[in-house]
Hints:
By secondary structure, this protein is α/β, with parallel strands linked by helices. It has twelve helices and 20 strands.
Amino acid sequence: MHYIGPKVHIDLTQLVKNYHLLSNEVGNIPIMATVKANAYGHGSVEVSKALEKEGVRYLAVFTIEEGIELREAGVKSDILLYSKLNPHGIDGAIKHKLTLNISSFDDLEILKQHNVQEHTLKVHLKIDTGMTRLGVDHNHAEDFFRQARDIDNIEIEGLYSHFATADEGDLTYAKSQLDKFNAVLTIAEELDINPVLVHCSNSGAILNLPESRFNLIRTGMLLYGGFPSDEVPQNISIKPVMTFTAPVVEIRDVKAGTHISYGGVYTTKENTRIAVVQAGFADGVPRPWYVDGFVKFKDKEMKIAGRICMDQLMIDIGSNDIKYGDEVLIFGSNQHGTIPVNKIAKTIDSTSYVLVTAIGSRPKRIYIDTMLNDLKRH
Ligand SMILES: Cc1ncc(COP(=O)(O)O)c(C=O)c1O
C-alpha cells in the first residue's frame, strides 16, 4: 500500500561524514556514540550499524531494553547503559554483554549480593561533579572506589562524570567540574584503580573544553549533525542527518475572515486557500511553532495557519500551485532549501534535542545512503 503520511528521512551517509569529521577534530580519540532514545529519534539500530561499519566500538543507550534491542539486531560493539542500575537487569546485562553504570553505594551492594562469575560484568563508575543527577558525590569517591575495588566479580572498565553547563559561553562551572573530576582520577590512581576508559565529554565539552576529552568522548548531538548550543565553536562542518516532511492531503478555498483550527486563533485576512498537511504534534511537529511557524514547499515558505493538531496542521497557501500528495518540508533540508531544526527550537524556546527526540513512532523513517546509491548507480 502506498504510504501517505509524515516521513523522517535519515541520511546515513551524512551521519558517517559527521562521525569522520568529529573523529578528525578530536585526533581520533574513540567515540562512544550515544544512541539512546532511538538514537535521538534517528533509529538506534540503523544508526548503530552504520557507525559500527565505520569502526565505532562504543555505544551508549539509557535503558537495558534499548541495549537488548541493539543486541537482538546484531550490534556487536560495547554498549554502556547510562541509567540507574536496575537490580533486576543484571542477568540480562550479563547475557547480552551490556556494560553497567554503577553510580551509588547501593549499586555496589547490589553487585556484591549478585552471584556473577568473576569478570563477566563490565562496569563504569560514575562520579557526580556537579550535575546532581546520577553519580557518587565526588567528595565520597575514595570510599566508593575502595568498596568497588573489593568486589571481585566486576571489571571496572570505565570511570566517568557528566557536565551540566559545558555548552555555555561561561565555562566557570564546567571547569570546576573538570577540576573535581581530575582530583577524583588522582584518588583512583592512588588506589591502583586504572580503568581503561576515562570520559566526561558530551558534545558541548568536546567543543568548549578540549582538555576534558581524556581517552573517550561520549557524543550524540554532533553525530546527528547539530550543535548543542550557539555558545560552542562551530567550525566543524557537520550537517543535520534528519529531514522531516509531510504530504498535503486536502486543499480548500476559504473566504476572508475564516477561522482555522482549534481555538480559531488564525483568521484569514483575504480570500485564500488552506492546505491540510498530514503531520501533527503526535508525529513530532512542535505545537508552539504555529505562532510564528512555516513549512516550505519548494523554495517558498508557507505560514502555518492556526494551532497544530494531533495528526494534522493547516497552512495558508494562497494561490501557490500545490496539489494532493505534494510534500512540504517541516524541518531539515531538501533540494529546495533548509529549515534548520535549531531555528524552530530557538523560536519556541526549546532545543534541537527536544525536537528530534519528539518524533513519534508513526512517521515512516526512510534511510538514505547516498554513498550506497552512488555505488549502485555506477
Ligand atoms: C551521560 C550522557 N553522556 C553523554 C550524552 C551525550 O550528549 P550530547 O548529545 O550533548 O553529546 C548524554 C546525553 O544526554 C548523556 O546523558
